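Protein record
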Amino acid sequence: MSGKFELNAETRSEKGTGASRRLRRAGKVPGILYGAGKEPVMLSFDHDALWHHTRHEAFYTSILSIKLDGKVIDQAILRDLHMHPYKPKVAHVDLQRVSATERLHLPVPLHFINQESAPGVKLQGGLVAHLVTEVDVSCLPSQLPEFLTVDVGNLHVGESIHLSNLTLPEGVPRTDLAHGNDLAIVTITVVREVAEPEPAPAAEVAAPAPAPEAEAPKKEGK
C-alpha cells in the first residue's frame, strides 16, 4: 500500500507565464488537477512543502490527498513534475484525480536486496547488473504498491531474474508481462579483466648521415 501524503492547495485564477512567475517569486508552485470526469482546477502549492515531499521515493507512487481550505477535495496521483532548468526548484506540478473503482497504470520502483550475499557476487566475483529499475503495473488505487522487492540472494553468475519471477500483490498484474514481454530485470555478469597493453619498444634513433664534403671551388682560367 502506498504512503500517505497531503498537499495543501490554494486556488488560482490567473493564467499565463507572468502569473506563474509571480507565484514562484512568492514561494508557490503552480499546478493543475484534472481527470475523473471533472473540470480541471488550477491550484498552487507551497514550494518548500512540495519540495520536501519530492525527496521521498514513495511520493511518486502514492495516492495524494489534495486539501483546500483544510478539507480534502480529491485523491490524486502525480502525473508530471516540471523542474527548473538548473535550480533545485519545482516549476509546475500536474495531478490526476483517481477513482476508487478505476484502475491506474503506473510505474513502480524496484528495490533489490541481498546483492552482496549472492553466490555470483560473494563466491564468483561477479557484478550485479540492474536491467530494469521500475515496472509498469495496473491496479486499483487501494492496491497500489509503494515498491516491489527483488531478492537477488540466490543468483549465480550468468543467471537472471525475470518479470515473471516477481511476486506482486493480488490483483496487481504486470503490464509488460500481460503483453507477453517477460523482461529480464537483474543479472550477475562476469568481471572481465582487461590487460593493459605493453608499452611499445622505443624506436632506435638512427645516427645522422655524415654531411657530404664540400667541393673546392674551381679556379677559372686566366
Summary: Residues 4-97 form a domain with the Ribosomal Protein L25; Chain P fold (CATH 2.40.240.10).
